[in-house]
Amino acid sequence: MGKKVKTHQKALIALVACVTGALLLATAVWAYDTAQRDQIAPGVTVGGVDIGGRSVDDAERVINRKVVAPLTKPVVVSFEGERYRVTPKQLETSADVNGMIDEAVDRTREGGLIERITRYVQGSTVDAEIDPRVGYSEEAVDEFVTELASEINRDAQDASITPSTDELIPTPGENGVVLREDEMREMIVDEVETPGGGERLTAVVDVTKPEVTTKELADQYPTYITISQSEYKLRLFRNLKLVETYGVAVGGSGYSTPTGLHSIQDKQVDPTWNVPTSSWAGDLAGQSIPPGPSNPLKARWMGIYDGAGIHGTDDAGSIGSAASHGCVRMLVPDVIELFDQVAVGTPIYIQ
To answer: Which of 202, 172, 175 has its CA nearest to residue 187?
Structure first.
């Protein structure tokens, strides 16, 4: 009987010891797990910034240095040597550091106690990627992109002609550029949201081509007329090359021929002279004079501007002088020859 009691006592003692050991182990496990509440598990990152294996305080310092600090820098966009910037104040940027830390702790504490202890023992990682909690004003980003477009966008410029009295100087066309606003907006947002920002961005644009290139100028201007009042010369260019030079008479004192760039407005054969209501016209003012001896507009008429035009004259002696009331006079054979070579719309440069 005594032996049975001793055996029972031994078993009870062993059980108590096991239970006590289990309780002590559980308490130790709980205590260790509790001690890890301020630790971030390995493998936890915020926007690609590794904060794993650190204390909460240490992780907060890393987030402030690598995630928040770049938010204090302006976003800079460069294009063709110019820099355009928008400040954090204008963008109304902000960062929720506590929210990022809390989420990191929550991801660290995921799973049951045993799962966490097993992870502690094995040194395995959580592999949790936390998005940075960064705020900004979408309206401010849109405004900056709109301002960028207004600064950067430019229309393509067609090739053109810079005329002088004796030559036509081609001016090359220029490409235009158009900002890719949607793509630029995404780049700016990414720069604001991505830790380690502060890099200068390069504006992304589409290049637009001019409708008229230098090679196409000859087709654009098949004929071109220049008039030098000081030389009393009219020059005809075809495909930008000088082909004919004619003597002319131009406006006399007080009746200047209109200078600048004009074009042929209309063409008439044996024109009627609609006499202007000017004092120099005398009794003829306001009348319409049909073709004939009393009509000074001989053979052909090419209207230029405000009643002035190119016409033939039978006063051959006036050619080479300032003798008209604003029109450009030519010898009859010359005006007929010129008339047949030019069309309405032909540019006329008068100097």
So the answer is: 202
Q: Is 311 among the catalytic positions?
A: yes
Q: Is 112 exposed, middle or buried (0-12, 13-18, 19+ CB in 10 A)?
A: exposed
221-350, superfamily in CATH?
L,D-transpeptidase catalytic domain-like (2.40.440.10)
Q: Where are the domains of the chain?
A: 138-215, 221-350
Q: Does the pLDDT of residue 281 top 90, yes or no? A: no
Residue of 8, 18, 262, 311 marked catalytic: 311
Give yes or no for a contact between 51 and 63, defined as CB atoms under 8 angstroms apart.
yes
* Structure confidence at residue 199 as a pLDDT band (50, 70, 90): confident
- Identify whether 327 is a catalytic site residue: yes
Q: What is the pLDDT of residue 159?
A: 95
* Placement of tokens 């890719």 in the chain: 180
Q: What pLDDT does residue 5 have?
A: 53
Q: Which residue in 8, 18, 262, 327 is the catalytic one?
A: 327
The confidence score (pLDDT) of residue 6 equals 67
